[in-house]
Amino acid sequence: MLSSEGLCSSPPPKQYGVTKPISMSGPTEADIQRSRELEKFLSDAGLYESKEEAAKRERVLDRIGQIVKDWVKQLTRLRGYTDQMVEEANAVIFTFGSYRLGVHGPGADIDTLCVGPSYVNREEDFFFVLHNILSEMEEVSELQPVPDAHVPVMKFKFDGISIDLLYASISLLVVPDDLDISNVSVLYDVDEPTVRSLNGCRVADQILKLVPNVEHFCTTLRCLKFWAKRRGVYSNVTGFLGGVNWALLVARVCQLYPNAIPSMLVSRFFRVYTQWRWPNPVMLCPIEEDELGFSVWDPRKNPRDRTHHMPIITPAYPCMNSSYNVSTSTLRVMMEQFQYGNKICEDIELNKAQWSTLFEPHLFFESYKNYLQVDIVAADVDDLRSWKGWVESRLRQLTLMIERDTYGKLQCHPYPHEYVDASKPCAHCAFFLGLQRKQGEIIQEGQQFDIRGTVDEFRHSINMYVFWKPGMEIYVSHVRRKQIPSYVFPDGYRRPRHPRVTAQQQSDKLCYEDGGACRTGSGERGVKRKKDPDEVDVKNDMLEKRCSISPLRRDSFSPDIISHKFGGTSPTCLAFAEGNEMCQIDEKRFCSDDVEGGFTSNSSVITSLSSEVGSSEDNGNESIAGSNEGNNGSADGSVEGSNNLGYSRSDSGDADSMCHLENVCADGSGVFQDGLREELEPNAAVGMLLKTVGGVEEEAVQKPVLRHVF
């Protein structure tokens, strides 16, 4: 037994992170058993690759390493360097991301970085010479250069293994094989894209150095990444969190509970982040500044940093916010999912639930009554790959634009999964965004969400794609829950329709007022019904229906997607009903056709700026004025349903406006437990509580500024 003198003389435990740990407690027998069950669940879920696949990855990396070495030697010889220089010429391959952290699964891509000498550049040598070398190799397929990305990358498959290859030219004539990429000297005399390329590897190395137990960190991160994918919140490009973001969040929890094992860390993860007071930043170490002069994340100095909603700061110089893509809407969705995870973990600790419950998929298509469906088509699979990547990268902007132009009252939930309808004659994929009125928002009578300019601005941002080819088209349609196409469900499963029509189902139908009564597309008279607060209705102008010639089969889309090219303004006006307030989309009726599942749809191209808002009665019942007469298009008859808000690519657009979001910070709704408030408060004490300085943003913003409080 240790004496009191011995205890006093022992050195204090090492502190990880910017604050003291919340708890130094280790696991109980129950925690150890739950960790065993968790690891077994992850293994049974197929999250670990086989030894054969691991060996194949090693062989592929060795092969790529030799290819880039030969490439640099070839360029050295062509540029007239001496034979000795040619002999010493070198390039080194580093890995980062999930592969470097040891949490990759079967079929995952490998994030790689090629570091080359100063005389080998990215623009010509990497994206042209090396690209041509790879394109001629039998092992290489799906080669896709992305030179204009925030971090320029070349994507391809090598012998079936997906590779994301970055390039960084450092200020050395000869790159040594034992280059220490963590040393800040590699950043001397390089440009910003090179810094961003190098930082992927530098951040991964720092994370592994800053966690108390790498093995426990990896198991916990593997678990949380799987959970995030199942719950639909794993995607940096659409405004959620990507791999490095989740790694940093998990690493911080490991620092706060240094002796915890995976089952404990998963539970503590949800406990911490349901109570985290965003936008207080998550940091693994203090933010360092260096004489190199690169900008670091600091809301006290940089006004743009004050607009970040969920700052998760990288630990390597220059420290950056890795989650700047997060918006008000996506933060709301993630906080809801953290609450879900916290509740399930509490039940697991009380033996009321199993680990499998935590990983049940999010029922996105049961969560909203109204959706935006974004269909992306191209002439072939190769064109679709690049076109889809561009459109997907802009979907986050659509979410931000909707938030901005509706003052946050219309919430948009982009779902980070793509769906493919194999029955279509062209290369196709679709994304969906859920729409709902902000809960608890008091809406004034007759208030509308006017997103006409929003949709038009989104079209312009899409039209900026410089590699556009004929056949690349995008269509945005409003669909109701009942009209979601069957190909998004597993095995084409669609929820069964109840034989009895309930009041809720009636509220989901579109009605057209005719003499005081609702009329369906078939002309049958219905009864007036109370308006559902979350429902979106469609009001069609009594204008002539127009149909265009399309290379697509008109029956291949559900809802109808008709190719139509146009210019000018594309208005859309949304309003959600609350009592007498109506939700509508102003549009011109375009074409219609029957769609699968017994539902009908009209596909509309918006060409009119004005339309009247339908009247609503004092008792809350409302109906929508409209007429199907005189619309002699190619469709067979009048219809109800999907409403195409969207566009084929037609005219060139201006650069999309930078969305300036004003962040008004308030205390979180959760109450910190057992000292958690005191332990997390130092983040705010170092000046990281983000509040927009009054007047800074207003001067630069011409469009309405979104204000949000959370």
From TrEMBL:
Its main location: nucleus. Its cofactor is Mg(2+); Mn(2+). Residues 17-211 form the Poly(A) polymerase nucleotidyltransferase domain. It is found in: Nucleus. It is an enzyme of class 2 (transferase). Residues 364-420, 423-497 form the Poly(A) polymerase RNA-binding domain. Residues 216-360 form the Poly(A) polymerase central domain. Its EC number is 2.7.7.19. Keywords: ATP-binding, Magnesium, Metal-binding, mRNA processing, Nucleotide-binding, Nucleus, Transferase. Pfam families: PAP_central, PAP_NTPase, PAP_RNA-bind. InterPro entries: NT_sf, NuclTrfase_I-like_C, PolA_pol_cen_dom, PolA_pol_NTPase, PolA_pol_RNA-bd_dom. Residues 621-650 have a biased composition (Polar residues). Belongs to the poly(A) polymerase family. This is polynucleotide adenylyltransferase. It comes from Hevea brasiliensis. The lineage of its organism: Eukaryota, Viridiplantae, Streptophyta, Embryophyta, Tracheophyta.
